[in-house]
Amino acid sequence: MKIWLMNHYASDMFYNKAGRHYWFAKQLRDRGHEVTIFCANTFLNKPDVVDTEKKKSIIKMAEEISTPFVFVKTRPSVGNGVDRVRNMYGFYKNLLPVACNYAKNNYKPDVIVASSVHPLTMLAGLKIAKKLNVPCICEIRDLWPEAIFAFGKAKEKSILGKFLVKKEHMIYKKADALIFTKEGDTDYLKERGWTTEQGGDIDLAKCHYINNGIDIKAYIDQIENMILPDDDLVAGAFNVVYTGTIRPVNNVGNLLDTAKIIEKEGYNDIKFLIFGDGMQRAELEKRLTTENIINVKFKGMVEKKYIPYILSKSSVNMLNYAQNQYNWTRGNSSNKLFEYMASGKPIISTVKMGYSVINKYKCGVELEEDTPECLAKEIIRFYKMDAETYEEYGVNSKKGAKDFDFSCLTDRLMTVINEVTGNDA
């Protein structure tokens, strides 16, 4: 079949040679399907752009997976202000003519998979699908506008809030199928009273769950070949590793408070390594000096290709969040969760998740409370753990990761595609 994947933020995937839709495209191509990825010519929170040469789009070939990326022109943005809204709208506005022109000059798809984060990509996908008379699958990777309400960017009962919810409902209703990345996201539809079982107009039979995941073969290859020279990774310490963004929802300051407790209790060979960047990094780094915290190091941003090697050198991986910053009852679709699992190391989550992957595969623990005292206790427990029990966590992690390998996830995607296209193959 001919399949279009639309993701505003897939531009990073082209250059990283990794990511959800990159891996989907790779798997689909290996199965004989023709795939095109549509994305913005900008990057999330970066001023960089892909030059479209004064046109609305430019096509670049991802040679490794024989897949064209269509970079759609929009304005760059940094942060979450007005410029980001303009960035989203510009992508939406130009995607329609660009996609229709691509269909005219190249090929018409059999199906479109339009993926959020923001809903304008799904809205554009639905409009394009209607114009081309093909089915559209809407993939919801983040529940907007709920996330906007949760972070105080808008009020649900305001005129804007009601408008956004109405448009969200319309998108879900018109989609030929829905894919949610968190297992419990269909609970949201029930909370809204939108399901046909409740007298609404969204049939749960068209709703599917496909979480994020990992390309295990590529992951193993990167461990072996993408080695990051770093003395802290080979020093023999018990390394508590965090990778990702340093922002309020990730509550990285909690790790510093935990590190102080662990040092005070005399565990001098437990070290905290924090890889990543974000709005809180500078202030947290300052704390290391002002509070004389000597068992924590901020390693900065590293290229994604080095993450597997870094995690292979960890002792415990931190899935660190603030419990009150987000609704965790519907599960977790964090990319780092599956990177952590593939490393074969235990995971500590500072929040209890609904539909918990960690509990299902017994590959770590989830804290009842996200206090430094509770976290320090669990880290020390893993530090003191007998080798056999510790290894069991690692075995479970790797075993669980196999269920989220993109070969398995693509099987699920093809089930949805076959359903909406009427293809029984």
What's the short version?
The protein has 425 residues and is of the alpha/beta class. It is built from 16 helices and 16 strands. It has helices at residues 11-16, 20-30, 82-105, 119-132, 146-150, 159-174, 186-192, 216-225, 253-264, 281-290, 307-312, 335-343, 357-361, 372-384, 387-402, 406-421; strands at 2-7, 34-40, 42-43, 46-49, 57-62, 67-72, 111-115, 136-140, 177-180, 207-209, 238-243, 270-275, 296-300, 316-319, 347-349, 364-366.
Q: Can you tell me about this structure?
A:
- This protein is α/β, with parallel strands linked by helices and 425 residues long.
- The chain has helices at residues 11-16, 20-30, 82-105, 119-132, 146-150, 159-174, 186-192, 216-225, 253-264, 281-290, 307-312, 335-343, 357-361, 372-384, 387-402, 406-421; strands at 2-7, 34-40, 42-43, 46-49, 57-62, 67-72, 111-115, 136-140, 177-180, 207-209, 238-243, 270-275, 296-300, 316-319, 347-349, 364-366.
- It has an 8-stranded mixed beta sheet with strand order 5-6-2-1-7-8-9-10, sandwiched between helices. The protein has a 6-stranded parallel beta sheet with strand order 13-12-11-14-15-16, with helices on both faces. A two-stranded antiparallel ribbon has the order 3-4.
- The termini are close together.
